[in-house]
Task: inverse folding
């Protein structure tokens, strides 16, 4: 495994564009550190400091940081599809196979690299969240601090799932731009499925249940939006805002299922393709 990861890291390091995108994908999530220190002065009447509003209290901070950090995954998604596109355009795929790398090892090298970068990103956002929380949170009990670290697991699974999907599209079309375009097409298809389910079942609740099992929606649903929860912490009497924001095992299992399917189909596609 380490040999395969090292092989991919060497390829990425030799590509200037990949180096820049990887750097951006790791750095941008840390904008939450900047966000935590922002002070807004309202014409001298009063100053609003986001860190003092309680949104960086434990345990809600795990929810907030992982939700916003997940939006920066598109930068590394470009790296993932480029890994495949460059293999075909530079003829390195064929050369690797000639040099003794099996097709299975080729796919695994991409997947291991995805897992590696997802793990590094998760550790970094976890450390950043911990430090922000320790600085701003009014709760210092160990049990409260680590109560909702399940969001870190959800964040990791979300990254691995999304990048594996990008890998699958990259293998399918062999071109970075077209692979990213397929993500948009899939987004549209999932909404068409939603409206189809609505026509069949006659209510939006069932339509949403169907949509939440589709690839992009299942990955997005791993970490639900925290906005209602933030309002609930300030206004506990807002019962109408109550919703289920927890990370559930079946949501994780759904994304892992799509991840396994993407990697399996990528391998089968490469196995049958004439290089």
Result:
């Amino acid at each position: 495994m380490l040999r395969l990861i090292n092989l991919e890291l060497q390829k990425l390091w030799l590509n200037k564009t990949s180096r820049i995108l990887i750097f951006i994908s790791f750095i941008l999530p840390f904008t939450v550190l900047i966000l935590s220190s922002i002070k807004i002065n309202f014409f001298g009447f009063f100053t609003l400091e986001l860190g003092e509003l309680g949104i960086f209290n434990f345990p809600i901070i795990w929810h907030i940081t992982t939700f916003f950090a997940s939006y920066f995954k598109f930068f590394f998604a470009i790296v993932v599809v480029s890994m495949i596109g460059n293999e075909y355009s530079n003829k390195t795929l064929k050369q690797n196979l000639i040099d003794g790398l099996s097709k299975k090892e080729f796919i695994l090298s991409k997947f291991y690299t995805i897992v590696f970068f997802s793990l590094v990103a998760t550790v970094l956002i976890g450390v950043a969240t911990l430090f922000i929380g320790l600085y701003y949170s009014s709760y210092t009990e160990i049990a409260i601090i680590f109560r909702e670290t399940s969001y870190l697991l959800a964040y990791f699974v979300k990254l691995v799932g999304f990048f594996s999907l990008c890998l699958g599209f990259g293998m399918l079309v062999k071109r970075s731009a077209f692979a990213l375009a397929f993500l948009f097409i899939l987004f549209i298809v999932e909404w068409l499925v939603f409206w189809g389910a609505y026509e069949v079942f006659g209510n939006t609740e069932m339509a949403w249940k169907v949509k939440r099992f589709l690839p992009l929606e299942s990955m997005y649903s791993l970490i639900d939006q925290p906005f209602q929860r933030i309002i609930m912490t300030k206004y506990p009497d807002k019962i109408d805002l109550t919703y289920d924001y927890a990370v559930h095992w079946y949501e994780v299992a759904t994304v892992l299922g799509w991840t396994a399917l993407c990697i399996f189909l990528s391998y089968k596609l490469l196995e049958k393709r004439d290089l």
Summary: The mean pLDDT is 83. DSSP finds 14 helices and two strands in the chain. Residues 2-31+48-272 form one domain.
